[in-house]
Amino acid sequence: MCVESVAGLHAAVEGGADRIELCAALSVGGLTPPASLIRAAAAAPLPVHLLARPSAGGFVYNAAEQALIADDIRTAAEAGLAGVVIGASTERRTLDMALLARWIALARTLGDARGKPLSLTLHRAFDLVPNPIDALEASIALGFDRILTSGCTPRAIDGAATLAMLHARADGRIIILAGSGVNAVTAPDILATGVRELHASCRSVRPVDEASPERRFGFVGPDTGMTDPIRVNDLARITHLTA
């Protein structure tokens, strides 16, 4: 369950989520959240994985951004989180193997507050690669624990055939985590691919009154969303029944 606020943390726990991806700015696919939220999430009774993504856009990072992500990995370990969600691309949108290897080497020297190794998830930089099979094998070679992917399409339900292929090709060597447009309606067809882990925001979205001061001053967009514990529970029940 991906959340971007303290309220989202509580809703994920209340709704029965198995794991939390902590981020900010879900409207652009998620960015690294503030340190205050990271500290708050560390107290959650669920495994929390930190998204390390410093800016919106693609996944080609300069030296300064690379250093930020390395520091985010340290922050996750120091806070006692269970894992990190990272990714990086070359200019050709293949996985940046050298950079990812450096981050993974750093993560392997760290651990959470209990001394367990950080879990490593490759994020949806994977969905931009020119050859998913090559990227799958590269991810396994690098030592990732799972790949978050929508099957190389904007929505996971439209990438179901690719998700099925990736799951079969992985053959237990890495977990395929399906995300993007996942909800109680799309989940059964996505789970039919063989994938057993789902990633969703389960948000209820409502429009913001155009006449409100917050909207007029630009402090909020045309709509706002919040993690909905009922939607979390609906998805959790489907996933657990199918597993």
Give a short overview.
With 243 residues, this protein is of the alpha/beta class. It has helices at residues 6-15, 35-41, 63-79, 97-109, 132-142, 160-170, 187-191, 213-216, 229-242, and strands spanning 2-3, 20-22, 48-51, 83-86, 119-122, 146-149, 175-179, 197-199, 203-207, 223-227.
Report what the structure shows:
With 243 residues, the chain is α/β, with parallel strands linked by helices. It has helices spanning 6-15, 35-41, 63-79, 97-109, 132-142, 160-170, 187-191, 213-216, 229-242; strands at residues 2-3, 20-22, 48-51, 83-86, 119-122, 146-149, 175-179, 197-199, 203-207, 223-227. It contains 9 helices and 10 strands. The radius of gyration is 17 Å and the shape is globular.
Provide tags for this entry.
TIM Barrel; two-stranded antiparallel sheet; globular; 243 residues; 10 strands; single chain; eight-stranded parallel beta sheet; alpha/beta
Low-confidence stretches: none
Strand order of the largest sheet: 1-2-3-4-5-6-7-8
CATH superfamily: Copper homeostasis (CutC) domain
Instruction: Tell me the span between the first and last alpha carbons.
Output: 17 Å
Just give the CATH class.
Alpha Beta
Which range best describes the helical content: under 10%, 10-25%, 25-40%, 40-55%, 55-70% or over 70%?
25-40%
- Helical element count? 9
Number of domains: 1
> How many β-strand stretches?
10
Order of helices and strands: EHEHEHEHEHEHEHEEHEH
Determine the CATH topology.
TIM Barrel
CATH-level-2 architecture: Alpha-Beta Barrel
